[in-house]
Amino acid sequence: MTKTYYLTTPIYYVNGKPHIGHAYTSILCDTFARFHRMLGEPVFYITGTDEHGIKVQKAAQEQKKEPRAFVDEIVPQFKELWRVMGIQYDYFIRTTDDDHKKVVQKILADLEKKGDIYKAKYQGWYCTPCESFWTELQLKDGKCPDCNRAVDRLEEENYFFKLSKYQAWLIQYIEDHPAFIQPEYRKNEVLGFLKEPLEDLCITRPKARLTWGIEYPGSKDHVVYVWFDALVNYVTGAGYLQDDKKFKSLWPADIHLVGKDILRQHAVFWPIMLKTMGVEMPKLVFAHGWWRIGGAKMSKSVGNVVDPIAIVQKYGSDVLRYFLLNEVTLGLDGTYSEDLLAERYSSDLANSLGNLWHRTASMIEKYFEGKVPQGKQESRFYDPKGLWEDVSKAILSYDPREAVARIWAVITRANQRVEETKPWILAKDVSKKGELADVLFNLADSVAHVAVLLQAFMPDTAHKMLNRLKMTHGETIGHVSEFCKPLVTAGTVLEKGEPLFPRFEEKKS
Ligand SMILES: [Zn+2]
Protein backbone atom coordinates (compact mmCIF):
# COMPACT_ATOMS: atom_id res chain seq x y z
CA MET A 1 0.00 0.00 0.00
CA THR A 2 1.35 3.44 -0.91
CA LYS A 3 1.85 5.61 2.13
CA THR A 4 -0.40 8.64 1.88
CA TYR A 5 1.33 11.99 2.16
CA TYR A 6 -0.26 13.26 5.37
CA LEU A 7 0.13 16.89 6.35
CA THR A 8 -1.47 19.08 8.97
CA THR A 9 -1.99 22.70 9.83
CA PRO A 10 -2.47 23.46 13.50
CA ILE A 11 -6.14 23.50 14.31
CA TYR A 12 -6.95 27.19 14.59
CA TYR A 13 -8.17 28.65 17.85
CA VAL A 14 -11.62 30.12 17.36
CA ASN A 15 -11.64 33.01 19.81
CA GLY A 16 -11.60 35.46 16.90
CA LYS A 17 -11.76 35.84 13.15
CA PRO A 18 -9.11 34.26 10.89
CA HIS A 19 -6.23 36.53 9.87
CA ILE A 20 -3.29 36.45 7.48
CA GLY A 21 -1.22 34.26 9.82
CA HIS A 22 -3.82 31.51 9.53
CA ALA A 23 -3.93 32.02 5.77
CA TYR A 24 -0.15 31.66 5.56
CA THR A 25 -0.01 28.25 7.23
CA SER A 26 -2.90 26.95 5.15
CA ILE A 27 -1.45 28.27 1.88
CA LEU A 28 1.88 26.57 2.60
CA CYS A 29 0.18 23.25 3.30
CA ASP A 30 -2.06 23.67 0.28
CA THR A 31 1.00 24.20 -1.92
CA PHE A 32 2.72 21.08 -0.59
CA ALA A 33 -0.50 19.07 -0.91
CA ARG A 34 -1.09 20.19 -4.50
CA PHE A 35 2.47 19.41 -5.47
CA HIS A 36 2.28 15.89 -4.07
CA ARG A 37 -1.09 15.38 -5.78
CA MET A 38 0.54 16.48 -9.02
CA LEU A 39 3.16 13.77 -8.50
CA GLY A 40 0.29 11.30 -8.35
CA GLU A 41 0.62 10.51 -4.65
CA PRO A 42 -2.37 10.00 -2.38
CA VAL A 43 -2.57 13.05 -0.11
CA PHE A 44 -4.45 13.70 3.12
CA TYR A 45 -4.46 17.34 4.17
CA ILE A 46 -6.17 18.02 7.45
CA THR A 47 -7.05 21.31 9.06
CA GLY A 48 -9.67 22.35 11.55
CA THR A 49 -10.57 24.30 14.63
CA ASP A 50 -9.55 24.20 18.26
CA GLU A 51 -12.72 25.12 20.09
CA HIS A 52 -12.40 24.55 23.83
CA GLY A 53 -10.80 26.51 26.63
CA ILE A 54 -11.09 29.59 28.75
CA LYS A 55 -10.55 32.14 25.97
CA VAL A 56 -13.45 30.75 23.95
CA GLN A 57 -15.61 30.52 27.04
CA LYS A 58 -14.88 34.19 27.81
CA ALA A 59 -15.33 35.39 24.23
CA ALA A 60 -18.72 33.65 24.17
CA GLN A 61 -19.70 35.19 27.51
CA GLU A 62 -18.80 38.65 26.26
CA GLN A 63 -21.22 38.18 23.39
CA LYS A 64 -23.79 36.66 25.76
CA LYS A 65 -23.75 33.39 23.85
CA GLU A 66 -23.41 29.76 24.77
CA PRO A 67 -19.89 28.56 23.83
CA ARG A 68 -21.30 26.02 21.41
CA ALA A 69 -23.40 28.64 19.60
CA PHE A 70 -20.37 30.96 19.54
CA VAL A 71 -18.02 28.43 17.95
CA ASP A 72 -20.70 27.32 15.50
CA GLU A 73 -20.70 30.90 14.20
CA ILE A 74 -16.90 31.22 13.93
CA VAL A 75 -16.18 27.90 12.23
CA PRO A 76 -17.95 28.84 8.96
CA GLN A 77 -15.75 31.98 8.76
CA PHE A 78 -12.68 29.74 8.61
CA LYS A 79 -14.29 27.45 6.07
CA GLU A 80 -15.28 30.45 3.96
CA LEU A 81 -11.72 31.79 4.03
CA TRP A 82 -10.37 28.44 2.83
CA ARG A 83 -12.98 28.36 0.08
CA VAL A 84 -12.11 31.87 -1.09
CA MET A 85 -8.40 31.09 -1.00
CA GLY A 86 -8.81 27.81 -2.89
CA ILE A 87 -7.44 25.71 -0.03
CA GLN A 88 -8.09 22.07 -0.93
CA TYR A 89 -8.05 20.30 2.42
CA ASP A 90 -9.28 16.73 2.68
CA TYR A 91 -10.70 16.81 6.17
CA PHE A 92 -11.84 19.50 8.57
CA ILE A 93 -11.72 18.45 12.21
CA ARG A 94 -13.42 20.23 15.08
CA THR A 95 -12.38 19.42 18.64
CA THR A 96 -16.07 19.53 19.55
CA ASP A 97 -16.66 16.51 17.27
CA ASP A 98 -17.97 13.57 19.29
CA ASP A 99 -15.51 11.02 17.89
CA HIS A 100 -12.59 13.31 18.75
CA LYS A 101 -13.83 13.80 22.32
CA LYS A 102 -14.25 10.06 22.84
CA VAL A 103 -10.72 9.28 21.65
CA VAL A 104 -9.23 12.00 23.87
CA GLN A 105 -11.00 10.45 26.87
CA LYS A 106 -9.86 6.96 25.90
CA ILE A 107 -6.24 8.10 25.63
CA LEU A 108 -6.38 9.83 29.03
CA ALA A 109 -7.89 6.79 30.72
CA ASP A 110 -5.14 4.61 29.22
CA LEU A 111 -2.35 6.92 30.28
CA GLU A 112 -3.72 7.13 33.81
CA LYS A 113 -3.82 3.33 33.96
CA LYS A 114 -0.21 3.21 32.78
CA GLY A 115 0.76 5.54 35.61
CA ASP A 116 1.73 8.47 33.37
CA ILE A 117 -1.04 10.65 34.77
CA TYR A 118 -1.46 11.39 38.45
CA LYS A 119 -3.60 13.64 40.63
CA ALA A 120 -1.96 16.36 42.73
CA LYS A 121 -2.52 19.65 44.43
CA TYR A 122 -1.57 22.64 42.36
CA GLN A 123 -0.74 26.05 43.71
CA GLY A 124 -0.73 29.20 41.70
CA TRP A 125 -2.03 32.73 41.36
CA TYR A 126 -5.48 33.54 40.11
CA CYS A 127 -6.67 36.75 38.47
CA THR A 128 -10.42 36.87 39.03
CA PRO A 129 -11.35 39.48 36.37
CA CYS A 130 -9.23 37.67 33.75
CA GLU A 131 -10.25 34.23 35.03
CA SER A 132 -6.64 33.22 34.48
CA PHE A 133 -4.39 31.02 36.52
CA TRP A 134 -0.72 31.98 36.59
CA THR A 135 2.43 30.38 37.90
CA GLU A 136 4.84 32.37 40.03
CA LEU A 137 7.14 32.80 37.02
CA GLN A 138 4.42 34.14 34.76
CA LEU A 139 3.51 37.03 37.09
CA LYS A 140 4.77 40.51 36.27
CA ASP A 141 5.95 42.25 39.43
CA GLY A 142 3.65 39.98 41.38
CA LYS A 143 0.64 41.02 39.33
CA CYS A 144 -1.46 39.56 36.52
CA PRO A 145 0.63 39.74 33.33
CA ASP A 146 -2.50 40.42 31.24
CA CYS A 147 -4.25 43.19 33.18
CA ASN A 148 -1.71 44.17 35.83
CA ARG A 149 -4.23 43.68 38.66
CA ALA A 150 -3.64 41.95 41.99
CA VAL A 151 -3.83 38.17 42.01
CA ASP A 152 -4.92 35.69 44.71
CA ARG A 153 -3.12 32.59 45.88
CA LEU A 154 -5.14 29.57 44.87
CA GLU A 155 -4.78 25.89 45.48
CA GLU A 156 -6.63 23.31 43.45
CA GLU A 157 -6.50 19.65 42.69
CA ASN A 158 -5.63 18.66 39.13
CA TYR A 159 -4.36 15.86 36.96
CA PHE A 160 -0.74 15.93 35.79
CA PHE A 161 0.99 14.29 32.87
CA LYS A 162 4.50 12.97 33.56
CA LEU A 163 6.50 14.91 31.02
CA SER A 164 9.56 14.74 33.28
CA LYS A 165 9.71 10.95 33.05
CA TYR A 166 10.36 11.19 29.28
CA GLN A 167 12.70 14.17 29.14
CA ALA A 168 15.87 12.13 28.68
CA TRP A 169 14.18 9.99 26.04
CA LEU A 170 13.02 13.07 24.11
CA ILE A 171 16.46 14.69 24.08
CA GLN A 172 17.94 11.45 22.77
CA TYR A 173 15.22 11.15 20.13
CA ILE A 174 15.78 14.67 18.83
CA GLU A 175 19.52 14.13 18.74
CA ASP A 176 19.13 10.82 16.91
CA HIS A 177 16.71 12.34 14.37
CA PRO A 178 18.26 15.62 13.30
CA ALA A 179 15.56 16.25 10.68
CA PHE A 180 12.67 15.84 13.14
CA ILE A 181 12.45 19.52 14.08
CA GLN A 182 13.13 22.12 11.39
CA PRO A 183 14.54 24.62 10.67
CA GLU A 184 17.67 23.56 12.52
CA TYR A 185 17.78 26.75 14.61
CA ARG A 186 14.36 25.81 16.01
CA LYS A 187 15.62 22.33 16.85
CA ASN A 188 18.47 23.94 18.77
CA GLU A 189 15.99 26.14 20.59
CA VAL A 190 14.02 23.09 21.70
CA LEU A 191 17.17 21.31 22.84
CA GLY A 192 18.13 24.48 24.74
CA PHE A 193 14.75 24.49 26.47
CA LEU A 194 15.19 20.82 27.36
CA LYS A 195 18.42 21.59 29.23
CA GLU A 196 16.22 22.77 32.13
CA PRO A 197 14.25 20.15 34.06
CA LEU A 198 10.88 19.60 32.44
CA GLU A 199 7.92 20.12 34.77
CA ASP A 200 4.99 17.77 34.62
CA LEU A 201 2.10 19.23 32.68
CA CYS A 202 -1.14 20.11 34.39
CA ILE A 203 -3.69 18.67 31.97
CA THR A 204 -7.00 19.50 33.63
CA ARG A 205 -8.88 22.55 34.82
CA PRO A 206 -11.46 22.44 37.60
CA LYS A 207 -14.96 22.99 36.33
CA ALA A 208 -15.32 25.69 38.96
CA ARG A 209 -13.37 27.97 36.63
CA LEU A 210 -13.72 26.31 33.24
CA THR A 211 -16.67 24.30 32.00
CA TRP A 212 -16.09 24.56 28.23
CA GLY A 213 -13.93 21.51 27.59
CA ILE A 214 -13.86 17.75 27.33
CA GLU A 215 -14.74 16.17 30.64
CA TYR A 216 -11.82 14.35 32.20
CA PRO A 217 -12.65 10.62 32.25
CA GLY A 218 -13.24 9.59 35.85
CA SER A 219 -13.83 13.06 37.26
CA LYS A 220 -17.03 15.04 37.12
CA ASP A 221 -15.12 18.07 38.43
CA HIS A 222 -12.48 18.52 35.74
CA VAL A 223 -12.21 19.30 32.05
CA VAL A 224 -9.16 18.57 29.90
CA TYR A 225 -6.55 21.29 29.31
CA VAL A 226 -7.10 22.67 25.83
CA TRP A 227 -3.62 21.84 24.49
CA PHE A 228 -3.85 18.17 25.38
CA ASP A 229 -7.21 18.03 23.65
CA ALA A 230 -5.99 19.96 20.60
CA LEU A 231 -2.80 18.01 19.87
CA VAL A 232 -4.70 14.75 19.79
CA ASN A 233 -6.54 15.98 16.67
CA TYR A 234 -3.60 14.91 14.53
CA VAL A 235 -4.35 11.27 15.30
CA THR A 236 -8.12 11.40 15.78
CA GLY A 237 -8.46 13.08 12.37
CA ALA A 238 -6.45 10.20 10.90
CA GLY A 239 -8.72 7.52 12.35
CA TYR A 240 -6.76 6.58 15.49
CA LEU A 241 -8.73 4.13 17.67
CA GLN A 242 -11.58 4.42 15.16
CA ASP A 243 -10.40 3.11 11.81
CA ASP A 244 -7.17 1.09 11.99
CA LYS A 245 -6.83 0.67 8.26
CA LYS A 246 -7.13 4.38 7.62
CA PHE A 247 -4.76 5.23 10.44
CA LYS A 248 -2.17 2.78 9.11
CA SER A 249 -2.28 4.35 5.67
CA LEU A 250 -1.83 7.88 7.06
CA TRP A 251 0.39 7.71 10.11
CA PRO A 252 3.09 8.84 10.75
CA ALA A 253 2.27 12.35 9.56
CA ASP A 254 4.79 13.63 7.02
CA ILE A 255 4.72 17.14 8.41
CA HIS A 256 3.09 19.11 11.17
CA LEU A 257 3.46 22.68 9.97
CA VAL A 258 3.15 25.12 12.89
CA GLY A 259 3.91 28.70 13.83
CA LYS A 260 7.09 29.18 15.87
CA ASP A 261 5.01 30.34 18.86
CA ILE A 262 3.54 26.86 19.28
CA LEU A 263 6.67 24.86 18.63
CA ARG A 264 7.12 23.78 22.24
CA GLN A 265 3.71 22.14 22.34
CA HIS A 266 4.48 20.27 19.11
CA ALA A 267 8.11 19.42 19.73
CA VAL A 268 7.92 18.62 23.46
CA PHE A 269 4.39 17.81 24.66
CA TRP A 270 3.22 16.01 21.53
CA PRO A 271 6.16 13.62 21.03
CA ILE A 272 5.97 12.62 24.70
CA MET A 273 2.21 12.09 24.44
CA LEU A 274 2.75 9.85 21.41
CA LYS A 275 5.57 8.00 23.13
CA THR A 276 3.39 7.11 26.10
CA MET A 277 0.53 6.19 23.76
CA GLY A 278 2.90 3.85 21.92
CA VAL A 279 2.39 5.65 18.62
CA GLU A 280 5.15 6.34 16.11
CA MET A 281 6.58 9.87 15.93
CA PRO A 282 5.56 12.20 13.08
CA LYS A 283 8.33 12.59 10.51
CA LEU A 284 8.70 16.33 10.85
CA VAL A 285 7.64 19.30 12.91
CA PHE A 286 8.36 22.43 10.90
CA ALA A 287 8.00 25.87 12.48
CA HIS A 288 7.36 28.88 10.28
CA GLY A 289 7.92 32.50 11.26
CA TRP A 290 5.56 35.40 11.82
CA TRP A 291 4.39 38.16 9.57
CA ARG A 292 5.18 41.55 10.96
CA ILE A 293 3.02 44.42 9.92
CA GLY A 294 5.13 47.55 9.62
CA GLY A 295 7.73 46.02 11.96
CA ALA A 296 5.26 45.07 14.69
CA LYS A 297 3.95 41.61 15.45
CA MET A 298 0.39 41.34 14.23
CA SER A 299 -1.97 41.27 17.16
CA LYS A 300 -5.54 42.06 17.96
CA SER A 301 -4.57 44.43 20.77
CA VAL A 302 -2.35 46.52 18.46
CA GLY A 303 -5.16 46.59 15.92
CA ASN A 304 -2.96 45.76 12.91
CA VAL A 305 -4.58 42.45 12.01
CA VAL A 306 -4.73 41.95 8.23
CA ASP A 307 -7.96 40.49 6.92
CA PRO A 308 -7.00 38.07 4.14
CA ILE A 309 -10.47 38.13 2.58
CA ALA A 310 -10.18 41.85 1.83
CA ILE A 311 -6.79 41.28 0.16
CA VAL A 312 -8.14 38.38 -1.88
CA GLN A 313 -11.15 40.41 -3.01
CA LYS A 314 -8.88 43.17 -4.21
CA TYR A 315 -6.01 41.20 -5.78
CA GLY A 316 -7.16 37.59 -6.10
CA SER A 317 -6.04 34.65 -3.99
CA ASP A 318 -3.08 33.77 -6.24
CA VAL A 319 -1.50 37.17 -5.63
CA LEU A 320 -1.62 36.70 -1.86
CA ARG A 321 -0.33 33.13 -2.27
CA TYR A 322 2.54 34.31 -4.45
CA PHE A 323 3.46 37.06 -2.02
CA LEU A 324 3.44 34.87 1.09
CA LEU A 325 5.26 31.96 -0.56
CA ASN A 326 7.90 34.11 -2.19
CA GLU A 327 8.57 36.88 0.28
CA VAL A 328 10.54 34.92 2.90
CA THR A 329 12.31 31.61 3.19
CA LEU A 330 10.09 29.24 5.14
CA GLY A 331 10.99 29.49 8.80
CA LEU A 332 11.96 33.16 8.89
CA ASP A 333 9.80 36.14 9.84
CA GLY A 334 8.44 38.30 7.05
CA THR A 335 7.16 41.82 6.67
CA TYR A 336 3.75 42.26 5.19
CA SER A 337 2.37 45.48 3.81
CA GLU A 338 -0.07 46.14 1.05
CA ASP A 339 2.45 48.47 -0.63
CA LEU A 340 4.97 45.66 -0.76
CA LEU A 341 2.38 43.29 -2.15
CA ALA A 342 1.40 45.82 -4.82
CA GLU A 343 5.07 46.21 -5.72
CA ARG A 344 5.52 42.47 -6.25
CA TYR A 345 2.28 42.38 -8.15
CA SER A 346 3.57 44.94 -10.57
CA SER A 347 7.17 43.68 -10.95
CA ASP A 348 6.86 39.89 -10.71
CA LEU A 349 3.31 39.23 -11.84
CA ALA A 350 2.20 41.96 -14.25
CA ASN A 351 5.59 42.87 -15.78
CA SER A 352 7.15 39.44 -15.72
CA LEU A 353 4.70 36.52 -15.92
CA GLY A 354 1.76 38.52 -17.30
CA ASN A 355 3.96 40.21 -19.87
CA LEU A 356 5.47 36.91 -21.02
CA TRP A 357 2.05 35.49 -21.70
CA HIS A 358 0.80 38.64 -23.37
CA ARG A 359 3.72 39.11 -25.76
CA THR A 360 3.92 35.41 -26.64
CA ALA A 361 0.20 35.18 -27.43
CA SER A 362 0.22 38.55 -29.24
CA MET A 363 3.13 37.62 -31.51
CA ILE A 364 1.62 34.22 -32.32
CA GLU A 365 -1.61 36.01 -33.14
CA LYS A 366 0.15 38.56 -35.30
CA TYR A 367 2.62 36.35 -37.17
CA PHE A 368 0.88 32.94 -37.19
CA GLU A 369 -2.83 33.76 -37.12
CA GLY A 370 -3.04 32.72 -33.46
CA LYS A 371 -1.85 29.17 -34.13
CA VAL A 372 1.19 27.72 -32.37
CA PRO A 373 3.76 27.35 -35.18
CA GLN A 374 5.77 24.19 -35.77
CA GLY A 375 9.17 24.74 -34.17
CA LYS A 376 12.24 22.74 -33.26
CA GLN A 377 12.65 21.47 -29.73
CA GLU A 378 16.43 21.83 -30.17
CA SER A 379 15.99 25.59 -30.07
CA ARG A 380 14.93 25.43 -26.42
CA PHE A 381 16.51 28.13 -24.31
CA TYR A 382 15.95 26.49 -20.90
CA ASP A 383 16.18 23.02 -19.41
CA PRO A 384 12.79 21.53 -18.43
CA LYS A 385 14.41 18.52 -16.78
CA GLY A 386 16.53 20.70 -14.52
CA LEU A 387 13.54 22.91 -13.81
CA TRP A 388 11.35 19.97 -12.77
CA GLU A 389 14.09 18.50 -10.60
CA ASP A 390 14.97 21.79 -8.92
CA VAL A 391 11.36 22.66 -8.15
CA SER A 392 10.64 19.15 -6.85
CA LYS A 393 13.73 19.15 -4.71
CA ALA A 394 12.83 22.54 -3.24
CA ILE A 395 9.27 21.48 -2.41
CA LEU A 396 10.29 18.11 -0.98
CA SER A 397 12.72 19.93 1.29
CA TYR A 398 10.05 22.51 2.23
CA ASP A 399 11.56 25.49 0.51
CA PRO A 400 8.71 26.93 -1.55
CA ARG A 401 10.52 30.22 -2.01
CA GLU A 402 13.36 28.44 -3.80
CA ALA A 403 10.81 26.60 -5.97
CA VAL A 404 9.16 29.88 -6.95
CA ALA A 405 12.58 31.37 -7.71
CA ARG A 406 13.37 28.49 -10.10
CA ILE A 407 10.11 29.01 -11.97
CA TRP A 408 10.67 32.76 -12.16
CA ALA A 409 14.18 32.21 -13.48
CA VAL A 410 12.59 30.56 -16.55
CA ILE A 411 10.07 33.38 -16.90
CA THR A 412 12.89 35.93 -16.78
CA ARG A 413 14.94 33.90 -19.24
CA ALA A 414 11.96 33.69 -21.62
CA ASN A 415 11.44 37.45 -21.52
CA GLN A 416 15.15 37.92 -22.25
CA ARG A 417 14.78 35.51 -25.15
CA VAL A 418 12.25 37.82 -26.74
CA GLU A 419 14.69 40.73 -26.47
CA GLU A 420 17.56 38.64 -27.88
CA THR A 421 15.74 37.19 -30.86
CA LYS A 422 13.61 40.24 -31.72
CA PRO A 423 10.80 38.32 -33.42
CA TRP A 424 9.41 41.60 -34.84
CA ILE A 425 12.59 41.92 -36.93
CA LEU A 426 12.60 38.24 -37.93
CA ALA A 427 9.00 38.70 -39.10
CA LYS A 428 10.08 41.28 -41.68
CA ASP A 429 12.28 38.76 -43.48
CA VAL A 430 10.47 35.87 -45.23
CA SER A 431 13.63 33.75 -45.18
CA LYS A 432 13.58 33.93 -41.36
CA LYS A 433 10.08 32.43 -41.05
CA GLY A 434 11.50 29.10 -39.75
CA GLU A 435 13.61 30.85 -37.16
CA LEU A 436 10.61 32.93 -36.06
CA ALA A 437 8.54 29.75 -35.73
CA ASP A 438 11.24 28.16 -33.55
CA VAL A 439 11.35 31.16 -31.24
CA LEU A 440 7.61 31.44 -30.80
CA PHE A 441 7.04 27.70 -30.48
CA ASN A 442 9.60 27.50 -27.69
CA LEU A 443 8.28 30.62 -25.98
CA ALA A 444 4.79 29.10 -25.94
CA ASP A 445 6.30 25.85 -24.67
CA SER A 446 8.12 27.67 -21.86
CA VAL A 447 4.82 29.24 -20.82
CA ALA A 448 3.32 25.75 -20.76
CA HIS A 449 6.11 24.40 -18.55
CA VAL A 450 5.67 27.32 -16.20
CA ALA A 451 1.88 26.82 -16.11
CA VAL A 452 2.18 23.12 -15.20
CA LEU A 453 4.48 23.85 -12.27
CA LEU A 454 2.48 26.87 -11.11
CA GLN A 455 -0.52 24.63 -10.39
CA ALA A 456 0.73 24.05 -6.86
CA PHE A 457 1.58 27.68 -6.16
CA MET A 458 -0.95 29.78 -8.08
CA PRO A 459 -3.69 27.35 -9.06
CA ASP A 460 -6.15 29.87 -10.57
CA THR A 461 -3.51 31.48 -12.77
CA ALA A 462 -2.09 28.11 -13.79
CA HIS A 463 -5.50 26.81 -14.86
CA LYS A 464 -6.21 29.99 -16.76
CA MET A 465 -2.91 29.60 -18.61
CA LEU A 466 -3.47 25.90 -19.33
CA ASN A 467 -6.93 26.70 -20.70
CA ARG A 468 -5.61 29.45 -22.95
CA LEU A 469 -2.93 27.07 -24.21
CA LYS A 470 -5.71 24.45 -24.77
CA MET A 471 -3.65 22.04 -22.70
CA THR A 472 -6.27 19.62 -21.50
CA HIS A 473 -3.51 17.20 -20.43
CA GLY A 474 -1.76 19.87 -18.35
CA GLU A 475 -3.23 18.67 -15.08
CA THR A 476 -2.19 15.06 -15.58
CA ILE A 477 1.53 15.66 -16.02
CA GLY A 478 3.12 14.14 -12.94
CA HIS A 479 6.47 12.86 -14.08
CA VAL A 480 9.65 14.42 -15.38
CA SER A 481 9.59 12.28 -18.55
CA GLU A 482 6.20 13.69 -19.59
CA PHE A 483 7.21 17.14 -18.49
CA CYS A 484 10.30 17.24 -20.71
CA LYS A 485 8.35 16.65 -23.92
CA PRO A 486 7.14 19.66 -25.86
CA LEU A 487 3.87 20.47 -24.12
CA VAL A 488 2.27 22.64 -26.77
CA THR A 489 1.14 21.25 -30.10
CA ALA A 490 1.70 23.01 -33.41
CA GLY A 491 -1.57 24.21 -34.90
CA THR A 492 -3.27 24.83 -31.57
CA VAL A 493 -5.25 28.06 -31.60
CA LEU A 494 -4.28 30.04 -28.49
CA GLU A 495 -6.70 32.16 -26.61
CA LYS A 496 -4.93 35.42 -25.78
CA GLY A 497 -7.58 36.64 -23.33
CA GLU A 498 -7.46 39.58 -20.96
CA PRO A 499 -4.15 40.43 -19.23
CA LEU A 500 -3.39 37.81 -16.54
CA PHE A 501 -2.45 40.61 -14.15
CA PRO A 502 -3.92 43.92 -15.25
CA ARG A 503 -1.81 46.91 -14.31
CA PHE A 504 -2.93 48.17 -10.98
CA GLU A 505 -3.97 51.63 -12.19
CA GLU A 506 -6.37 49.87 -14.57
CA LYS A 507 -7.51 47.64 -11.75
CA LYS A 508 -8.43 50.47 -9.41
CA SER A 509 -10.56 52.35 -11.92
ZN1 LIG B 1 -5.82 39.84 34.98
How do the strands and helices of this protein lay out in sequence?
Blueprint: E1 5-8, E2 12-13, H1 20-38, E3 43-50, H2 54-62, H3 67-84, E4 91-94, H4 98-114, E5 117-127, E6 132-134, E7 152-161, H5 167-176, E8 181-182, H6 184-193, E9 201-202, E10 204-206, E11 222-224, H7 226-231, H8 233-236, H9 244-250, E12 255-259, H10 263-277, E13 285-288, E14 291-293, E15 296-297, H11 308-315, H12 317-327, E16 334-336, H13 338-368, H14 384-396, H15 400-421, H16 423-426, H17 433-454, H18 459-468, H19 480-484, H20 504-508
Parallel strand pairs: 1-3, 1-12, 2-3, 3-4, 8-13, 12-13, 14-16
Antiparallel strand pairs: 5-6, 5-7, 7-9, 10-11, 14-15
The protein binds zinc ion.
The site of zinc ion has 8 residues, from loops.
Total count of helical runs of at least 4 residues: 20
> Any idea what the CATH superfamily of the domain at 338-508 is called?
Isoleucyl-tRNA Synthetase, Domain 1
Strand elements, count: 16
Query: Overall pLDDT, averaged?
Result: 94
Assign an overall shape: elongated
Approximate helicity band: 40-55%
Sheet with the most strands?
7 strands, parallel
Structural class: alpha/beta
| pLDDT < 50 runs, ≥5 residues | none
- Quote the beta fraction: 5-15%
- CATH secondary-structure class of the domain at 338-508: Mainly Alpha
Rg, nearest Å: 27 Å
What is bound: which ligands? zinc ion
> What is the third-level CATH name, the topology of the domain at 338-508?
Isoleucyl-tRNA Synthetase, Domain 1
* Distance from first to last alpha carbon: 55 Å
Tell me which CATH architecture of the domain at 338-508 applies here.
Orthogonal Bundle
